[in-house]
Amino acid sequence: MTALGPIDKVFHSKKGQSLIELTLITPLMLFLIYGVVEVGSIIGAYLTLSQLTREGANMTSRGTIPQDALDAITAAGAPTIRNNNQAQWRIIYTRFIQAPTIPCPPPQPCTYIIDNQIIRGNLGQSSKIGGMGNTVTIPGIQNVGPSQKFHTIEVFYDYGPNALSFVANNVNKIFYERTIFTDVSGKP
């Protein structure tokens, strides 16, 4: 049996083995932690947008002035939606009315006229419903009476500038959420 030399002691040392294992596992653990943080951030941003559309459409359907509702949901959307990142988002309020001259027999989609639209934010996205004065059909809304009004909030958000890791590079960075509420205010 030969005595271990100084180099052999390093290679057979338990302390050295633990240090090598730690060195190899640390980058992997950091990589996973960044991924978890990124997924949490993406989910948080999406949930914020979803909540904003529901609250905004609910407010306007109950008679809140659309500009006031947009101010309220912009303030509530912080830190995702802020005044200093307007190039990353766009909020579109749209009111449309069932066209009284065009019948709406089930099960076919009704025809609507967009009679009011307000846009906030500078992200270069257009409403997926349509523009002011357009006649549109929106499938999935059943049993609509003549001249029935609907209020919609659409939110677009560009997550790209907030991307931290590889996870965000594998998802669509433009988030979109929309909510439609029927008018319950009785206001013209």
Written overview of the protein:
This protein has one domain (9-182). The radius of gyration is 27 Å and the shape is elongated. The N and C termini lie far apart (99 Å). The protein has helices at residues 6-12, 14-61, 66-76, and strands at 89-98, 111-120, 135-137, 149-158, 174-182. A 5-stranded antiparallel sheet has the order 3-2-1-4-5. Helix 2 packs antiparallel against helix 3 (66-76). The protein has 188 residues and is an alpha+beta fold. It is built from 3 helices and 5 strands; from the N terminus they run H-H-H-E-E-E-E-E.
Q: What is the topology, as strand order, of the major beta sheet? A: 3-2-1-4-5
Mean pLDDT: 86
Please, how many helices?
3
Q: Which spans of ≥5 residues are poorly predicted at pLDDT below 50? A: none
How many runs of DSSP E, i.e. beta strands? Answer: 5
- Specify the overall morphology: elongated
Main beta-sheet annotation? 5 strands, antiparallel
Beta-strand portion reads 15-25%
The rounded distance between the terminal residues' Cα atoms is 99 Å
Compute the number of structural domains: 1
Structural class of the secondary elements?
alpha+beta
Oligomer: single chain
| Rg, Cα atoms, Å | 27 Å
Helix content: 25-40%
What is the chain-wise order of helices and strands? HHHEEEEE
